[in-house]
Task: structure prediction
Amino acid sequence: MTADHAALWQRDGRAGLAEVLAGEWDLIVIGGGISGAGVLLEAARRGLRALLVERRDFAWGTSSRSSKLVHGGLRYLKGGHLRLTAESVREREMLLRAAPGLVEPQGFAFAQYEGARGRRSFLTGLALYDAMAHRREPHWLAADDFLLAAPNVKRDGLAGGIVYTDARTDDARLVLRVLREALDHGAAAVNHLGARELLRAGGRVCGATLASADDGTTYTVRARVVVDATGAWSGALHGQGPRLRPLRGSHLILPAWRLPLARAVSLMHPHDGRPVFAYPWEGATLVGTTDLDHDDGMEREPRITRAEVDYLMAALQAQFPHLQLTDDDVVSTYAGVRPVIAGKEGGAPSQEGREHVAWSSPGLVAIAGGKLTTFRAIALDALRLVKHQLPGWDDPLDACPVFAPVPLPAVPVDVDVDAGTLRRLHGRYGACAAALIDAAGPGELERIPGTETAWAELRWAARSEAVRHLDDLLLRRTRLGLLLRDGGAAHLARIRAICQPELGWDDVHWAREETAYRAHWTLHHGLPHED
Result:
C-alpha cells in the first residue's frame, strides 16, 4: 500500500480514496471498533457492498482499552442475567476454536480466606457456567494446592481457593483480524475519516458527509442504510437511542518479573469489595479495573486518575504484600470508556448491565451497549434490522464461524521461528501470516525483550495496515507503547530503521510524529501526578 493511500484499507490499494467512495454502497458502517468491524464482516460475507469509516484509528476507542478478556461474564449470573451469560459463553467458545493464538484460555484463581462468605454460591455459579460451556472441571483447591496455582498471594488466613477458566485476547488485534476478514469478502475500511453529518432524502437517511481528519477534505457518500456503531459516542449524529452511561475502566501494566503470575488472580478490593484482577498479558502483567462514571466529556481522550492508580495499587498491596509493589513498578496505564446502557437512577456503576440494544429508523440502524465477547451477536442483531430496509436481500443471518479456517503458514527451512511465535502470528494475522514471515528482515522474527511481539510485526503493520501516525503503530497495531517503559523510547531507533522506509516518511515527518507520540504517551499512558 502506498503512502498516498495509507488511510484506505481495502483489497485493491491502487484505487484512490475519492474513487472508492464515489460508488453506491449498500451499507456504511460508522465506527471502527469491534462492533463496527463485526457488522462490516457479517455484511460483506453475505454479499452486501459495505464500507466502514472511523474518524480516528481502527480500535482507537473502547476496543483497544478494554480489560482484554473474552469472558462469559460470570458475575452477570449473580445478577440473574442468564441469557447474556449463556450468549457470552457460547461466543467465547467459538472464538477459542476459531482464533488460537489470538484468543487463548486464561485460568483464574480466587483466594478464599478464613471467615469469608460466598464460597458455596460461587461454586454453584461455576457449575452453571461449566454447563453452559459443556465442560466440567474441579474448582476448589485446598490452601497448599492453591499456593501452587497462585504462589504470591497473601498466605495469612488462607483457607484455599477457587479456580476456573475464561479467555484473553489482544482486543485491538481482534478488531484488525475481523476487519481483515471483511476485506477478504470485498469490503473497504478507512481510518481517520469521520462522519460529519447524515444525508437525508424523502424522510430517510441515504448516506453521510465524510471528512478527512488530516486535511478536512469532505466526501459525499451514498448508501441504502447507515449503521451507527460508534459505541460510547452513539447518537451524536442523529440524537436517537437509549440513554448511555459512560463508565471509565482504568488499568495498570507492570513487568512480569515484578508480579509473576501463571494464572489470573481475582480478589475483592479491601476498601469496597469490588472485584479486581491481575493476569499475564503479552509478556507483562495487566491489572484492572476501575468502574467509575466518566465525567470528563467524550471528546477528550480518557486517562487514568491519581485516585484510580491509588485504588488499584491498594488492591495489589493487599493481595501481594511481600512483593512490596509501588508506583515505580508501573510500566504504563490506560483507560477506556464503556458504552453502557443506563439503568435506574442512582445505581452503582458496577451494577449496570452489559446487554446491547439495536434500533432503527428509515435508512438508519444503530447499536449500543454490549461487550467485546458478544460482538458477533451484536452484528447479527444489527443486520436483522438492516434486512427490513433492503428489499431483495434475504440472507437467513445464521451464525457462522467468525474466521475462515487458515492453515498454519509453511515456514521455509532457513527461517528460524519458534512454535509459540508461529501460533501467535497465525492467530493475529490469519491468511497474512505467511506474507508477514516472508517480509521479515534478518532477526526480525525474534521477540522484542519484555514482550511477546516480534520485530517483524512492526514492519508488516507499517507496510500493510493503514498506519497514519506513530501511535497507530505503537498503541494499536502493536502494543509496545503499553508493554515497554516510556512507551518504548529505548527501542525507537530500531523501530524507525524498520518502519520509516515502509511508511514513506521523511526525517522531518518522522521527527514530528515521534514528538507527538512521546507527548501523547506521557499524558495518556504515564502515571498522573494529580487528579
Summary: Residues 507-524 form the longest helix (18 residues). DSSP finds 16 helices and 18 strands in the chain. The CA atoms of residues 363 and 389 lie 7 Å apart.
